[in-house]
Amino acid sequence: MTTIRVVVADDQELVRSGFAMILDAQPDIEVVAEAGDGAQAIEAVRRHSPDVALLDIRMPGTDGIEACRVIGAESGCRTVILTTFDTDAYVYEALHAGASGFLLKDVRRDDLVHAVRVVAAGDSLLAPSVARRLVEQYTAGGPRRTAPDARLDVLTGRERETLLLLARGLSNAEIAAELVVSDHTVKTHVGNVLAKLGLRDRIQAVICAYETGLVAAGSPPPGGAEGRGSSPA
């Protein structure tokens, strides 16, 4: 069994040690280092070459966003941002810094473990309800589009449908059921969408769907997904 190596960074010792204890108790996860700020997290990643770094978005000195940016530029380690979405003003910036997922700091034990496994496998993770809150908060101030912009012209009709379903927070299996195609076909469509639009993962695809006007900020994506859990890529 492959062991997932993790660095946990949070300036609150009780939070940090609690997360580390939960993760270390899993047979397939090893916490190789804990860090109290972003600079320590960067150094820990350089020293231990972990698979995943769990980063609090707010830390003294080098914060989670800058740590995420540096870690992504220097290594193959994937990052999960810890946040309190109601108050953090920099979550949107963290998306563009390269975060592969987001967790609320009051995350349940099972969801924490699941998120680390999903991100370590190369997927991204974002709860649909959080996606809408996040994107609408940071796009509502911009001009409202009446139609999708020209960036989407490179997509086929089916690829546009796929992007819309990604914005709804659907998993590949759910998209396959919606479009009545195979999982393999969905993976191909998702890959084409990301490649054609120059996007890193499905989190950026959600942002793109709003920024281009495919989904209007202020209006839930068709079909909604408020009750769904976090959806991996």
UniProtKB/TrEMBL annotation:
Xref: Pfam families: GerE, Response_reg
Chain segments annotated as transmembrane: none
Keyword set, alphabetical order: DNA-binding, Phosphoprotein, Transcription, Transcription regulation
Species annotation: Streptomyces zaomyceticus
PROSITE patterns per the UniProt record, alphabetical: HTH_LUXR_1, HTH_LUXR_2, RESPONSE_REGULATORY
Residues covered by the HTH luxR-type domain: 148-213
Keyword match DNA-binding: yes
Residues with PTM 4-aspartylphosphate: D56
Domain of life: Bacteria
Full protein name: Response regulator transcription factor
Response regulatory domain: residues covered: 5-120
Record's signal peptide: none
Keyword presence, Transport: no
